[in-house]
Every structure is written in C-alpha cells, then in structure tokens.
Amino acid sequence: MLSISHIHHVAIICSNYPVSKKFYSEILGFRIVAETYREERQSYKLDLAVTPNQQIELFSFPSPPARLSRPEAQGLRHLAFAVDDLDACIQHLNQHGVITEAIRLDELTGKRFTFFTDPDDLPLELYQL
Known about the structure:
- This protein is of the alpha/beta class.
- 16% of the residues lie in helices and 38% in strands.
- It has helices at 17-27, 86-95; strands spanning 9-14, 31-38, 43-51, 54-60, 79-83, 104-105, 112-117, 123-128.
- The protein has a four-stranded mixed β-sheet with strand order 1-4-3-2, with helices on one face. Strands 5-8-7-6 form a four-stranded mixed β-sheet, covered by helices on one side.
- The model has no long low-confidence stretch (mean pLDDT 91).
C-alpha cells in the first residue's frame, strides 16, 4: 500500500503565459515560488503555492493542442479549491471580470459551490467548507 500524504501539485498547460500567470498569481492570489524559462523547450514553468504543501505548475509550450471538451472529457474533469467564504470569492472574481456560474448545492454534503474558468477555459471550482 502506498502512503500518500497529500497532492503535491497539479500541472496546467496554458496557451498565453502572461495572461495565465496574471490570472493565477494576481486574480487567484497564488504566491509565485519559482519561474523558469526552459530555452530548449521554448517553455515557461511557473510554480505557484496554493497552500504551504500544494502547488500549481503552470507550463507554456509553443503550440499546445486545445482541450477537447469540457467538463466531461476523459481525464481531469476540473480542479476544485476549498474556500471559507464563497460569496466573497465570487465577488472578487466578478470584480476582475471572471464570470462564475450560479451557486449550486452539493446534494450529498449540503455544501455550496460554483464553477468558473481560467483563461484557457479550464473548469475550476470553488467549494465552500
């Protein structure tokens, strides 16, 4: 049996590095840990701290293929972030031009959540604890 303690990072490939860097660091507020340009791959790698133990790795590549469909494409469906105040988070996103869906209620837990997308249309979720 493996002894996995937590998710270390989630890797995201973006189509417009400056736009996605601003979205994840300035709008979502994730702290930049490291930024590396890999000349041989013509690629940036940006490490962003979500929590002290969890990160997002944001990659850029010259011509990444588009996501096939959302959100029911095979593979990663969406990335969810836990929040304490869903309404305040929605207000913050909306003030920065990020459109959020109507708040939904998780029928299994009774918790409130909403979806929005990053600059590449990757589905993201805010889930109120």
